[in-house]
Amino acid sequence: MAVPARKTSKQKKKLRRMHQKMSKPEISFDASTGDYRRSHHVSLKGYYKGKKVTE
Questions:
Q1: For 1-55, how does the pLDDT look when each residue is reduced to its tens digit (9 = 90+)?
Q2: Where does the record place Basic residues bias (predicted)?
């Protein structure tokens, strides 16, 4: 069984977790509805790729 030679410091633990932080959502302008929407998501008015998909 592997046993660590030394205790891992708090700073080393934080550095290991830094790549898991949340990133901002990608927002683009939808010309068909005139609103901003998230990429690969249905707009608030129910359009996806220029087609009405919801009521």
A1: 789 899 999 988 888 877 766 778 889 888 878 888 888 888 888 888 888 898 8
A2: 7-22
As to burial, measured by CB atoms within 10 angstroms (0-12 exposed, 13-18 middle, 19+ buried), residue 34 is: exposed
How many helices (H) and strands (E) the chain has is answered by: 1, 4
Note the pTM of the prediction, 2 decimals. Answer: 0.49
Dmax (CA) for the chain in angstroms is 61
The tokens describing 17, both together, are 């977790």
Where would I find the beta strands (DSSP E) of 1-55? 27-30, 35-38, 47-48, 51-52
Rounded Cα distance between 37 and 29, Å, is 6
Q: How far apart are the first and last CA of the chain?
A: 59
